[in-house]
Prior knowledge:
Largest sheet: none
Amino acid sequence: MKEYARQAGIKQRVTPHVFRHSFATEMYRHGVPLNDIRAMMGHDTKAETAVYIHVSDQVKKVRSD
């Protein structure tokens, strides 16, 4: 994975864990309900999933699950 990231010109650290954060964030930004993201990620609680979602406070105000 590190080699592919380097070839793509990505300088940030890339790991499977980073992909989980990116997946959760993008699903949320595209309107997938938090409970559905929770199920896809195999989490027991929404709070556990929420840790993986990185969006601005403005987006959080607009969307409430």
